[in-house]
Amino acid sequence: MALNKRPFFQPAASNQPAGPPGGHIWFTEYHSPASGITVRAEKTLFTGKSAFQEIVLLETEDYGRMLVLDGAIQTTERDEFVYHEMIVHVPLCAHPRPRRVLIVGGGDGGCVREALRHPEVERVTLVEIDGMVVELCRKFLPKIAGSLGDPRVELCIEDGVRFVKNHTRAFDVIIVDSTDPVNMASPLTRAPFFRAAKEALAPGGVYACQSQGPVFEARGMRRIARTIRKVFPDAAHYLASVPTYPGGMWSFALASKGGKRPAAASFAPSRPLPRGVKTRYYTPEIHRAAFALPRFVQEIIR
Amino acid sequence: MALNKRPFFQPAASNQPAGPPGGHIWFTEYHSPASGITVRAEKTLFTGKSAFQEIVLLETEDYGRMLVLDGAIQTTERDEFVYHEMIVHVPLCAHPRPRRVLIVGGGDGGCVREALRHPEVERVTLVEIDGMVVELCRKFLPKIAGSLGDPRVELCIEDGVRFVKNHTRAFDVIIVDSTDPVNMASPLTRAPFFRAAKEALAPGGVYACQSQGPVFEARGMRRIARTIRKVFPDAAHYLASVPTYPGGMWSFALASKGGKRPAAASFAPSRPLPRGVKTRYYTPEIHRAAFALPRFVQEIIR
Questions:
Q1: Which of A194, A168, A175 is nearest to A91 (CA)?
Q2: B interface test, pick of A32, A244, A295 with most B CB neighbours within 10 Å
Q3: Considering the entire predicted model, what is its pTM?
Q4: What value does the CA radius of gyration of chain B take, rounded to a whole number of Å?
């Protein structure tokens, strides 16, 4: 998810494998000026600019359909389950009775889909700043965005910062599924937003957000970790393996409004996943294990 | 570590960032015909062929020096600590008193270095089939290979399969740090080798090996898992995040000769890391957590 302003379409070079008639392109996301992930796309489904960002949708062989914002892979049909299950089921299972869920960002609908799998959830509010992302994901990524039409979903095309400031004690769980903390996503990782989010949580509420990767975004991860702890003393980080994200390792923060929740170090599921919910990554054991951080990650967030 | 016969040097394309005077190359390891990791190398330190494989050593900006065998990244200065700590400290800490350690493969010396950090270890035997790998790593990767001259190390340039067959009850821990299971490394993942390794272990002995990645090598991982369980009923798999390996997620198998060791599902450290040993990935919590497998990985090895 590293933002990258480098031109990211490469023509198929002669030493690369031949594609179907009509050719193919190789999309490369540079995680730094000196390395990246390269993926062959059979087809460009969409390319354009919204008011906020450059949006590309590709049909790839290895990862299925892929959403790219400002040159950074956001989600792919093949590996989205890791990110969406881990950013949603960890906070939802950490909360004993999550009824009202707010998702900030997450215009692809993946978080909404996972949240709706919990029968306790009565209402999911999705606040996405970029309506074009929602429209395009509904059209091109129905497997991910397919739950956006559910009657329990309230969809607001609006600035998440403003939305959160206007709500108090309104949500049991807030999940921030944002792009990298630059441009419009930058305020979502700053103290004023965390404070507003804490206010917007009901007592006993749980907050979760993506907190960048420890391999290529260590500085950003450290900044988020230090900022969130100032507002939520009870914050902890957890990890998941996302193949298409820089370094293959991604971090999340989990925090609680405090009072009724256990200390950060012992974050564990309050309840199992609802019966009949089949996951592909999340399990109660993974929930606990994800908070065990490699020493180099502990040092980043110290 | 996926073997790849595709030509893997690309000239710097015009839309890629400018390098230092003298130019640079982009090395791409294809994890499939349709995706891979691409890394800029400032310098090619060595390129040649041994009796067994094509050997390339690169100086890269993001990953430091990098060893590439038959087109597959084996180890890099920047992320080798993950793989080497996890393939060594898990079996060594699972064993209550590891005195004699055998490493099969691992010609870069990283496993030897980590094993020697345990003061209980009296002797480390490294059996590597390709002497050229050892020589080149001593020359170009001294941070990794620097312990090969330790007086506790016995270095055998020999076929590991034959070596293991010729030893009985000789080792407390056997670690197989092999390339992908093709060509000369293929027999190392077959039942006859696992049976010979079990014989070569002393009572209460522990066996560990890399067991491929679940993202791009699911079939190979399944085959190893099913084969190893036939020989070691007590085998379990664990995971670590290795940024330069396919999919960023790598698996290992841990097995015991049985009798004195706990059941596979509860593999946990028998003892802490020796005092004063500073790791960058491994911790006792990571040891336990690494055995929690995402559901899609559980399904691969079922």
A1: A175
A2: A295
A3: 0.92
A4: 19
